[in-house]
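tool=predict chain=A
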Amino acid sequence: VAYGTAAENLVSVTLMLANGEEVTFDGSGVSDAGIDKQLHQLVDANADLIDTELGRFPRQVSGYGLHYLLDKHGFDAAKAIAGSEGTVGVITKMTVKLVEVPQVKALAVLAFETVYDAASAASELRLPGVATIEGMGGDLLDALRSKRGQEKAGGNLPGNRKGIPAGGWLYCEVGGDTLAEAEALAETVAASVDTVDTVVVSNPQEMRELWRIREASAGVVTRLPDGGEAWPNWEDSAVPPENLADYLRDLYALMDKYSLRGIPFGHFGEGCVHVRISFDFGSDEGVAIFKKFMNEAAELVSSYGGSLSGEHGDGRARSALLDRMYSEEMRGLFKKFKNILDPDGLFNPGVLVDADEVTDGLRMAPGQRKFELTPVHKFSHDKGSMVNAVNRCVGVSACRSEENSMCPSFQITGDEVHSTRGRARLLSEMFRGESVADGYKSEEVLEALDLCLSCKACASECPVNVDMSTYKSEFLHKHYQGKIRPMAHYMMGWLPLLGHIAHKIPLLPRLIDTSMRTP
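tool=predict ok
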């Protein structure tokens, strides 16, 4: 809430257009005189429409940011390119603003009776010096505690530490020049709204422990407490912050209507809500319900003056729903804007303009998987499916964390392919059969898994319990089926029997010990 969106921090951007020409967009216009003139004409002829429908609140990022081209924004062409989702050119260079990091920080975590109370209070906390107003609900904490190794998570949250029931929390981080200044501001924030409990900390380690709970959410919500899958299609909608509580109530009600489940969390101070929902893409009925939900959710967020996307963009997931949010005239302007920069429609077709349907190309559907297998392991938390197990990974990248990487081989190589996430990605592509076409015979997958030590750190430390050692075991079982394995496999596999035999033969153990000490 302190530093604004990416667009607001963009000074200039250079695009390579489809004809190979590089054009720079900045606060004074466009380096190509012809494009600059066309954009001026587009905006001058439609200024009132643009001013009415665009730029209503900071997180309105759906569509193109044509409002930055208005005179009141100084015809800032760079900002208009932000959020264009690769549909007008390839970005080759950017200049962005820097902001000064506060000398010291303090964190106020506020507990509320319900997540709606937390959402209602968020807009009141946009005070000078407050950098973040992040929200989460009690259902997220329940999901986190359902993961292996996280059964006692959140014991340090306000409410929980005193045994006071709480259903929602806000994380408000503040900065200052001195510790006393930061702590005083955090105390002011904590006292400015009604809560059931609060905690204020300035010790970096204590702050880190509290933040870790909120940061785990992006991975945690991909798996519901009962192990069911949840998907990100209605992922990052946003409304003006003062409307957030009412929007959240209606969003929960809409999920209930279709017997769907999801765990909202997000940037409550900005009115932005992240949620992954238990859509069923494995049946025609499930896909039909998904389509109904998406259309009704688009109507709902628009009724609150909101945006289909508040952060990640519309993409193929939501571009077809822009007609719920914008008038036909505005969507016509979007098309003209794209045509000025990409007249042949070569860049990222199907996004924002001439959009694909929300049901097109669903990669989660069974038809998008080239093969499945009957695994040796039960995968009881994944409905007996290794595909479902691999799909646990959504790229949160806790396995790449510099402060505590869970994967020993990645710590040594630093190569993405040796991270838990990289290996999961390769296995997923193997099942899809597009870029990795050899299935269980794949040498690429074998190489990626080769340095995995099967230490099982990922199974407990990953927010969604990706268990790479089990996946490796399944892959190797299939990869070597009917083949001669490497000698190391036989040595390790038969070690218990070989050890038993060796101890029955006099002097053999001593001979083995001696040979093992020989350089």
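Residues 486-519 form one domain. DSSP finds 21 helices and ten strands in the chain.
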